């Protein structure tokens, strides 16, 4: 029997669990969250323990996936569950289109109405969120989050841990570095260096509140 544990029962966890359920691939789905005593019974799936309890469930639950937005945590937890013997699936909502020639690493989720086109390569623990599109030959590193409604042209390269805010676009053949943040609604027309936060049309570097002293 194929049984999926979802680590994280927040908003993203709910969307991921519904995508997994709609795919019909698992016989059972449950969640782990450190707020399990508060959350259990309030969601459509049982919240059966905290994240640290993971090892207890490895004999009964075949697969695990991580549903937290913070990419470093997402990748760390994926490593942890893999070392405990869980299989790390790719979750694809049945309304998404994923090209048969695309290659997607474990722990990545493709949400409702998203599109991943021919020969795209997606690393581990990525999120291609609701209605986003990743066009042909794109290369996404590990832990990249493509927020709802984002569009990537063909052959776009994105480094590990980068986060593309809701509704932004990247024209074809551009390279976005690692740990980049692209603001909601931005249009990226140039390459972006590691660690930058960019916003606007066309996208330019901004000094975010996080970096203002
Ligand atoms: C990019 C972002 C993370 C920056 O947030 P922040 O670090 O709090 O930045 P600040 O609010 O301090 O804004 C810094 C400057 O950038 C501007 N700015 C911020 N977001 C912008 C945007 N989306 N478009 C244009 N300008 C923007 C601000 O107006 C501000 O300009 P100022 O210095 O002239 O006043 C945030 O604005 C954003 O776009 N988040 C996207 C959220 C999202 O997509 N959520 C979906 C989750 S699934």
TrEMBL record:
Q: For this protein, what is any one GO molecular function term?
A: transferase activity
Looking up InterPro entries in the UniProt record yields: AcTrfase_PglD-like, PglD_N, Trans_hexapeptide_repeat, Trimer_LpxA-like_sf
Decide whether keyword Lipid biosynthesis is in the record.
Answer: no
- UniProt entry tagged with the keyword rRNA-binding: no
Q: Which residues are involved in binding acetyl-CoA?
A: 145, 166
Q: Where is the PglD N-terminal domain?
A: 3-80
UniProt keyword list: Transferase
Organism domain of life: Bacteria
Site described as Increases basicity of active site His, positions? 137
Q: What is this protein called?
A: Acetyltransferase
Report the active site residues: 136 (proton acceptor)
The family assignment reads: Belongs to the transferase hexapeptide repeat family.
Q: Which residues of the sequence carry a binding annotation for substrate?
A: 69
């Amino acid at each position: 029997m194929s049984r999926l544990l979802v680590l994280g029962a927040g908003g993203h966890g709910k969307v991921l669990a519904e995508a997994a359920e709609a795919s019909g691939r698992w016989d059972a789905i449950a969640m782990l969250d450190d707020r399990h005593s508060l959350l259990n019974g309030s969601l459509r799936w049982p919240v059966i323990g905290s994240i640290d309890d993971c090892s207890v469930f490895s004999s009964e639950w075949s697969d695990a996936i991580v549903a937290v937005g913070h990419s470093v945590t997402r990748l760390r937890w994926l490593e942890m569950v893999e070392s405990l013997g869980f299989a790390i699936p790719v979750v694809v909502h049945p309304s998404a289109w994923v090209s048969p020639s695309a290659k997607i690493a474990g722990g990545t989720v493709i949400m409702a109405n998203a599109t991943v086109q021919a020969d795209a390569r997606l690393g581990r623990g990525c999120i291609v969120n609701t209605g986003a599109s990743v066009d042909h030959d794109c290369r996404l590193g590990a832990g990249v989050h493509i927020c709802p409604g984002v569009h990537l042209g063909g052959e776009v390269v994105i480094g590990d841990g980068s986060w593309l805010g809701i509704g932004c676009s990247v024209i074809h053949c551009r390279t976005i570095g690692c740990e980049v943040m692209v603001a909601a609604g931005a249009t990226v027309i140039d390459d972006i260096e590691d660690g930058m936060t960019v916003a606007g049309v066309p996208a330019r570097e901004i000094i975010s509140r996080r970096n203002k002293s």
